Amino acid sequence: MQIKEFADFTGVSVRTLHYYDEIGLLTPAFVDGATGYRYYDEKSILRMQELLFYRELDFSLKSIGEILSYPNYDRNRALDEQKQLLLLKKERLERLIFAIDDAVKGENVMKAFDNSEYEKYKSEAEERWGKTDAYKEYEAKTSDYSKDKWNSIADGMNDILAEFALCMKNGNTPDSAEAQTLVKRWQKYITENYYHCTDEILAGLGQMYVADERFKNNIDKHADGTAAFMYDAIKVYCG
Question: I need a surface site. Which of 95, 116, 162, 187 has the fewest CB within 10 A?
């Protein structure tokens, strides 16, 4: 779909879609280099659904971005938590509706405004998905990074990605010693520059490299199939 079609389909304005793209919350599946037209696909719809559920639950855009970018993000588990939050919200609205009738009768209905259970569950969910130990470590470690430091880190990552592409082109399999050595370097590089990259986190990152088109396209710039090769190599490395 072109952006106007996607906006009409999702009920979100074109201006909002431009803003979501600007902050990296929802990028188009494809941008025509000649016309600049933005196009969205089925994956865009799925991400928009998740985004809208969180917006309905009053999560900030910053929190939503952190949650959806979490390496081990489990979509089904997140949807289940969203359902629980919506049920709590529904119960509160029903309680308030009944409270109006009681208020008409002159009764004290202050308890109907109690939203502590919802806020507690929401806080726990946000903490679990958006403020993990890894994310806190990332914030602390990168807080004073200069522009040159970020550029240096990006160059280093691109160098390793290029080596993954070359390793694949040379006919090495994901379980080869060469590929496994690169995975180990990749994990070490993330730990040194971002946060402690455990095998569990690394496995989650590997899945994201093939599931998220933004990561896949960026990695495959080095050679088509590099993202899938990395995913398979990481899968072997993490057992």
Answer: 116
